[in-house]
Design brief:
CATH superfamily of the largest domain: D-amino Acid Aminotransferase, subunit A, domain 2
Number of strands: 19
CATH topology of the largest domain: D-amino Acid Aminotransferase, Chain A, domain 2
Largest sheet: 10 strands, mixed
Shape: globular
Radius of gyration: 21 Å
Bound molecules: 2-OXO-4-methylpentanoic acid
Helix content: 10-25%
Strand content: 25-35%
Oligomer: single chain
Order of helices and strands: EEEEHEEEHHEEEHHEEEEHEHEEEHE
């Protein structure tokens, strides 16, 4: 068992906080004073260390740089009005991290290293949690293979780390989305459900092509029929059709089981919508749009929170939405924020006190 007392701590001699304004801060650009670092060697995890945020020294032969045995998570910490720090559903991300680790043939990280390391790191750097609405301290746990060896095989050594980045919204304005029919993000039997680094690198070309066409992101379709909706950019996606909130089901292992997705399903149900997890085809979306039944489209994610989609372009058919008239997505966001910033009772037990 690892307890806080077992973590080796080296404190930064100078806080960078005085040099940074936490208001209106971009996503993922700044990092707090400390980071967590733990090595896996000879089949066991070594003692975790919290130390000043610093560069790593890696051999050019480090396996992760060649074959992408690398996974990560995204979690957020918030402060309530009294300034007390909380993390939103960290145990769910911990479980998903180890699901990703297994799929990528990496060792799982023990709960006490992941949770106690994260808790102590945030306790030390809690001054870095922004208080502005839609801002949070983004927590980035990640692990990569660290063998210095370019044979293609699972590594014997790994590094697990946690960084903290005070961040504003990932997508700041309602988005224009291109329905992608040529390139795919994930296939059944692949790694789409894992938070594997390569899933994000592999998405960049198609996203850049969509940007050249004037869009912000792509809506991924299934790899077999190019017919069923999957994810949108780095987010899960929801469509409000009539009184139903519909999001693609996870059965085929091509979609990330988002923690914000799961929270959104709960809250949308509490708002009186019928929540449906099922295959949703682009034909059904277009038919609903033509019938005036497609009310709202939005993405969910830790970084993105709730992001409104103002345009969906599918071949020559472009759907434009008047996002200012929407009720459900803004209300969902309001309710989730009220829980995160401690303005209402946490009836779901989602907020983990530091
Ligand atoms: C998150 O929402 O935490 C993500 O993983 C998206 C991201 C790659 C910034």
């Amino acid at each position: 068992m690892i307890a806080a007392a077992d973590i080796i701590i080296t404190k930064a001699t100078h806080s960078k906080l005085n040099d940074i304004n936490l208001e209106n801060i971009p996503f993922g650009k700044y990092f707090s004073d400390h980071m967590l670092e733990v090595d896996y060697e000879n089949g066991a995890w070594k003692t975790p260390e919290i130390k000043p945020y610093q560069s790593l020294s890696l051999a050019p032969s480090t396996a992760a740089l060649h074959y992408g045995q690398a996974i990560f998570e995204g979690i957020k910490a918030y402060k309530n009005a009294a300034g007390e720090p909380f993390i939103f559903r960290p145990h769910d991300n911990f479980r998903r991290f180890n699901i990703s680790a297994e799929r990528m043939q990496m060792p799982t990280v023990p709960e006490e290293i992941f949770m106690e390391g994260m808790r102590l790191l945030i306790e030390m750097d809690q001054q870095w949690i922004p208080s502005q609405e839609d801002h949070a301290l983004y927590i980035r746990p990640f692990m990569f293979s660290s063998d210095e060896m370019i044979g293609v095989r699972p590594s014997e050594n790994y590094k697990f780390m946690i960084l903290l980045s005070p961040s504003g919204p990932y997508y700041s304005a309602p988005m224009r989305i291109y329905v992608e029919e040529q390139y795919v993000r994930a296939v059944p039997g692949g790694v789409g459900y894992a938070k594997a680094a390569g899933n994000y690198g592999g998405a960049m070309y198609a996203t850049a092509q969509a940007k050249l066409k004037g869009y912000d992101q792509v809506l991924w379709m299934d790899a077999i029929e190019h017919k069923y909706v999957q994810e949108c950019g780095t987010m899960n996606v929801f469509f409000i059709i009539g009184n139903s909130a519909i999001t693609p089901n996870l059965n085929e292992g091509t979609i990330l089981a988002g923690v914000t997705r799961d929270s959104a399903m709960t809250v949308l149900g509490e708002m009186g919508l019928k929540v449906e997890e099922r295959p949703l085809s682009i034909e059904e979306i277009i038919a609903a749009h033509k019938a005036g039944e497609l009310k709202e489209v939005f993405g969910t994610g830790t970084a993105a929170t709730i992001s409104l989609i103002r345009e969906l372009g599918y071949q020559d058919y472009v759907m434009n939405f008047d996002v200012d008239s929407w009720k459900s997505a803004p209300e969902l966001k309001r309710r989730l924020n009220a829980i995160r910033y401690g303005q209402v009772a946490d009836e779901h037990g989602w907020m983990y006190k530091i």
